[in-house]
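Most newcomers find our protein records easier to grasp once they have seen one. Sequence and backbone structure share a record, each on its own labelled line. Nothing more is needed to start thinking about how sequence determines fold. As an example, a complete record with its sequence and its structure tokens follows.
=====
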Amino acid sequence: MAKFKLKEIARPAGWIALGVAVIFLLGGSRALYDDTLIDWWKPVSACALLAVISSLAMSHRWKKFTCSDFAPINFTLHAIVSFTVLIFAFFSVNYFFADDKDLHTENVTVEHRYRETRYHTKRVGRRTVGRGTPYYVYSIEVRFSNGRLKTLPVSKKRHDRLRTNTTIPLEVETGYLGIPVIKSNYYSQKKEK
């Protein structure tokens, strides 16, 4: 009976855990971005710059994990991991530590409403996955009083009730980092005008 060494199991498990953590943090960042009123490229470029700078100083620490002295591999891995941690930290700190005393309602105008067709996946063969049945994702584009546009996902029922050029209320707070966040479930339960 063959015995397994702990290192033989720990290394693949570490790669899998790292991959899952990166995907989780990127998904969480994307979800928090939907409720944050900022252009996407601003935090992405700032966090990417910080990730590259930290990679220059700390990428050598990944040698044991990658089992490689090849600097570009360690540099890239550190840049990816540090970027995902930084972008998630940025959005989560701004959202979860927002000032509750600043909660106010803003009336926004529905500029555009639309639906996108997406497809479920289905297994076609043993190793093949194909396009399955279609489903729809509904969204509205709203304009704030300062001219900012934001796309918000909505349910089909809410999408069907809303019309363009109508005004709806959104509950907004100033985030911890000074960036406004939407705190209601995309708009308050007040009746639309």
In short: The CA atoms of residues 110 and 166 lie 6 Å apart.
